[in-house]
């Protein structure tokens, strides 16, 4: 049997094409380009069916519940505490914002980094990236597909935190007649409160999109998914240390993590927008740089 013509030849590329729902290219025919909608739908199915993704979503569902139970028990024993978590006591609609803010410090970025690591570096480690590069997709469309998959993970994680947070806040913690007592001492209705929770959720997804773009750029440079996780974790630690040094205050406008506490502003009345807008613009800069670096790397990458 001639080398390269056996059943195993091209097995990994063919498997990758079938796994992602991409069209195979018939021998001797012109490549058929798959519709972008089909590519995105295939990537979403592939991402959401991974056991790792389902486990992560389960963990994020537990976070608001654990905070609610902890706050309720502490409130009965020692009275309401201080800070953002302390503000949850008897004020359950604060819980989803608190859960998203706490998770944004580490857990949410790591979840997005894991998705980005699997998107390119994981495919390369499994030997299936070559099939995707050879498939009639186009490398730019491939980057769009992978970036969309990472974004889906970010949206799903934040949506779980927000939805379970609202339910746990109302059922376990309770609230003042279904209203939200802001950190400013005023009271707003349920509809307005849910609107602010949604605002924080959208803003959080924007911050995670920036993390995912940078992680995707690192993922395109390596074949080892753990390198992506290590790079994101190291970046979070370094940014945190730099942001805590007073003499390096001039670096604050350039650090992605420096505005991650701005989501708490949604619990104030009137709602100050400067912090969230500034953090969004900063995240947009990281997003553009990350996606640009990913595209440049993938266009030059050998199949």
Structure description:
The protein has 303 residues and is an all-alpha fold. It has one domain. It contains 11 helices and 2 strands; from the N terminus they run ααααααααββααα. It has helices at residues 11-19, 36-48, 51-78, 83-86, 95-104, 107-126, 129-134, 139-173, 190-219, 225-244, 274-300; strands at 180-181, 187-188. A two-stranded antiparallel sheet has the order 1-2. The radius of gyration is 22 Å and the shape is globular. The two termini are 25 Å apart.
Largest sheet: 2 strands, antiparallel
Radius of gyration based on Cα positions:
22 Å
Mean pLDDT value: 86
What structural category characterises the helix and strand content? mainly alpha
Unreliable stretches: 1-10, 25-30
Quaternary form = single chain
For the largest sheet, list the strands in their spatial order: 1-2
User: What sort of overall outline do the alpha carbons produce when their principal axes are compared?
Assistant: globular
N-to-C series of helices and strands: HHHHHHHHEEHHH
Which descriptors would you attach to this protein?
303 residues; mainly alpha; two-stranded antiparallel sheet; globular; disordered N terminus
Please describe the topology of this protein:
Blueprint: H1 11-19, H2 36-48, H3 51-78, H4 83-86, H5 95-104, H6 107-126, H7 129-134, H8 139-173, E1 180-181, E2 187-188, H9 190-219, H10 225-244, H11 274-300
Antiparallel strand pairs: 1-2
Helix pairs in contact: 2-8, 3-5, 3-8, 5-8, 5-9, 6-8, 6-9, 6-10, 8-9, 8-11, 9-10, 9-11
